[in-house]
Specification:
Elements (H helix, E strand, L loop, with lengths): L1 E4 L7 E2 L4 E4 L2 E5 H5 L8 E6 L9 E9 L5 E7 L4 E5 L16 E9 L9 H23 L3 E3 L2 E3 L4 H15 L10
Antiparallel strand pairs: 1-2, 1-5, 3-4, 4-9, 5-8, 6-7, 6-9, 10-11
Pfam families: Hikeshi-like_C, Hikeshi-like_N
GO molecular function, one term: nuclear import signal receptor activity
GO biological process, one term: protein import into nucleus
Length: 184
């Protein structure tokens, strides 16, 4: 029916690697798969096995769950989108809903496409947010190196944004891998 690949971490795994809870739900215990290092697994590629088609209006939805917290929707595949690379937004272990050793799961379930959240690609939105955060951190660190502190304020020269952007552009031109360092 479906398979998954964890980029840079696994070979393709088919649905038989998951525990089938009922005819519509499958769960992969990440503790068995990678132990307590599940948070290092940032993405999953899910795909329909060749020759398999979902009924019209149905989708395979992917969720993550850790530490007894509720499942978090990651994205879905369906007839018009037979594969997807999805970000895995693991909840922070500091906010565990249940005590005990870390536990994490990936759930896949067959659902009505219309009932899924409106976000067509939840992973893409998360990547954009993380990229914006990393670029903002870069700008802040640059500004700190050229500023004075006045109480709780950073005092910088009026041209600091221009200077940062020129440096950013020059570095990106010199090193094509530089921009990739901003993705998580």
């Amino acid at each position: 029916m479906f398979g998954v690949v964890f980029p840079d971490r696994s070979f393709p795994l088919d649905a038989s690697s998951f525990t089938q809870i009922d005819p519509l739900h499958w769960v992969l215990d990440m503790n068995t798969f990678v132990g307590e290092a599940y948070q290092e697994v940032k993405e999953v590629c899910i795909f329909m096995i060749s020759g398999f088609t979902l009924p019209p209006g149905k989708a395979l939805a992917v969720y993550v769950q850790a530490h007894g917290n509720p499942y978090i929707f990651c994205g879905a595949i369906h007839g018009a989108r037979p594969s997807a690379l999805l970000h895995l937004p693991w909840p922070d272990p500091a906010f565990a809903a249940s005590p005990g050793p870390p536990s994490a799961r990936i759930g896949v379930c067959l659902e009505d496409l219309a009932s899924l959240p409106a976000v067509a690609d939840a992973g893409a939105l998360g990547r954009v947010e993380r990229l914006a955060l990393r670029v903002g951190e870069n700008l802040f660190n640059f500004m700190q190196s050229f500023c004075a502190i006045d109480g709780n304020r950073l005092v910088v020269t009026a041209d600091i944004l221009d200077r940062w952007f020129i440096k950013f552009q020059e570095r990106a031109k010199r090193d094509p891998e530089y921009l990739k360092s901003f993705t998580l």
